[in-house]
Amino acid sequence: MRFAATIRIALRALRRNKLRSALTTLGIIIGVGAVIAMVGIGNGAKSQVEAQIASLGQNVVLIFSGSWAPGGVRSGWGGAGTLTVEDAEAIAREVRGVTRVSPEVRSREQVLASGLNWGTQILGEGHDYLDIRDWPLVDGAMFTDADVRGASKVCLIGQTIVTQLFPNEDPLGQTLRVRNIPFTIVAVLSRKGLSVMGTDQDDVVIVPYTTSMKRLARRTNVNSIMVQTESSAVSARVQTEIAELLRQRHRIGSGREDDFTIRGQEEISQAATAATRTMTFLLAAVAFVSLVVGGIGIMNIMLVSVTERTREIGIRMAVGAHARDILLQFLSEAITLSSLGGIAGIALGFGAAKAISAAAGWPTVVSPGWVVLAFLFSAAVGVFFGFYPARKASRLDPIDALRYE
């Protein structure tokens, strides 16, 4: 029997029981839709994290202070200060492939302006900071190297500070008080959004690091050093050379642990996306289970169909149909059910992903690869769970089948 004729017979059989066919495919529809929607949510979360990593800038290497505190307890990143401005200058001077360096001093202060006050993060940075972060300005200009050397009382403010302290006026040129010290606002930063850790990057005031060290934090060391390399290709080598330089400068002997921590942008990205990647595969695995359940439903209905159509099978065999023709017919019915369910499930998955994105404000990214995989898996489910009922039908004895009532 020709393949086309077998498909027509299979479709005719499915149309005879439209409601039962629709209910049978429902498990596949839900399974495929769940796979696409869940993977879309997971990929959306991953893309959001990657965008946050990209907001750090291009080819960035971060160096954090970290030391052994008294009593042998490790303080961790940014703990007991071990990095200095001289370390940053040495990195810029001696490490090949480094294009920009910015020492960083962090503190949290209450700031006042226009009769309003707001608690925010104060970042002491070098004049190359915005170039490293690839952070454009809405208005004004970055403070200069002369401002850094002179510990000038100038600052840049983020969009959250503008909203909280200057809701209806232009902040440029106005005075912002930190610890009752007047700072002149020389620039307004563009909106940056959330960081990898989920903090608001726009809730910030940036001042020269020398100003922060002398007037605000009153310290002689820095929390961290931000470095930009000339390309991502040299990042690993630059990290190695920075580590060797700092160990030499800090007189760290062989076998002793570093009192600093170095992280490249790619390493940070891998660590940050590991959780979302695991979540994506977990959600997909749960959704694929529902596909398997749908396949069991197809097997159940096909077994019922074989029992109901035993006499029909006997008649077809009596007029010349071979066992392989019967096998192909019932297998075609199972594959058709699962494939139609897969197509409907794809539409459901896209719709669910869009609805979740609109309702929860959560980004969803549906990749074509997962769509193809979900459809192929649904078709494979039809083959796997449809084969046994089809084989059972093909092995019926024609005489017994004709006698069946």
Primary descriptors:
single chain, 405 residues, alpha+beta, 2 domains, 6-stranded mixed beta barrel, 12 strands, 56% helix
Topology:
Blueprint: H1 3-16, H2 18-54, E1 60-65, E2 68-69, E3 73-74, H3 85-94, E4 98-113, E5 116-125, H4 129-133, E6 137-140, H5 145-149, E7 154-157, H6 159-165, E8 175-178, E9 181-189, E10 204-208, H7 209-216, E11 224-229, H8 235-249, E12 260-264, H9 265-308, H10 310-318, H11 323-360, H12 368-394, H13 398-403
Parallel strand pairs: 5-10, 7-9
Antiparallel strand pairs: 1-11, 1-12, 2-3, 4-5, 4-8, 4-11, 6-9, 7-10, 8-9
Helix pairs in contact: 1-11, 2-9, 2-11, 2-12, 3-8, 9-11, 9-12, 11-12
Written overview of the protein:
The protein folds into two domains: 3-52 and 273-403, no CATH class; 83-258, no CATH class. Helix content is 56%, strand content 18%. The protein has a six-stranded mixed beta barrel with strand order 4-5-10-7-9-8. Strands 2-3 form a two-stranded antiparallel ribbon. It has helices spanning 3-16, 18-54, 85-94, 129-133, 145-149, 159-165, 209-216, 235-249, 265-308, 310-318, 323-360, 368-394, 398-403, and strands at 60-65, 68-69, 73-74, 98-113, 116-125, 137-140, 154-157, 175-178, 181-189, 204-208, 224-229, 260-264. The chain starts with a helix and ends with a helix. With 405 residues, it is α+β, with helices and mostly antiparallel strands. α2 (18-54) packs antiparallel against α9, α2 (18-54) crosses α11 (323-360) and α9 crosses α11. The radius of gyration is 33 Å and the shape is elongated. The chain has 13 helices and twelve strands.
